[in-house]
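Design request, tokens follow.
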């Protein structure tokens, strides 16, 4: 298992799965915001609790990633969460994705590519 986690591609996949996981906390936050009229309702407490569960899991995975890759490379990939946020917004909440949002995502990916490839 340790040799498997030393594989650079596996660590990058693990990083991006953790960022996808982290972006789901935004979804849970938005779901919880629909129940703010009664913050002691089961629905609000469930969605708000899910934010904590997701962020705890993300923190554990993030620490494991930082053991295996430089902080600068890992941190440069964090904006991918914004892109996942756009995707979740569209799929779950019916929000519209504009060309400006796509252009912004392209700039983010170009920046990530530059940082990641400069490490090699």
């Amino acid at each position: 298992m340790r040799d498997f986690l030393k594989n650079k591609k596996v660590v990058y996949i693990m990083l991006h799965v953790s960022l996808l996981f982290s972006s789901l906390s935004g979804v849970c936050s938005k779901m919880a915001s629909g129940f703010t009229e009664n913050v002691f309702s089961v629905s609000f407490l469930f969605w708000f609790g899910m934010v904590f569960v997701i962020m705890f899991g993300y923190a554990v995975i993030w620490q494991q990633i930082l053991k295996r890759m430089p902080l600068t490379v890992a941190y440069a990939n964090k904006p991918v969460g914004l892109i996942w946020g756009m995707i979740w917004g569209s799929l779950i909440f019916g929000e519209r994705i504009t060309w400006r949002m796509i252009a912004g995502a392209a700039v983010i990916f170009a920046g990530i590519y530059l940082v990641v490839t400069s490490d090699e």
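Comment from the thread starter after seeing the answer: thanks! The two ends are 24 Å apart (CA to CA).
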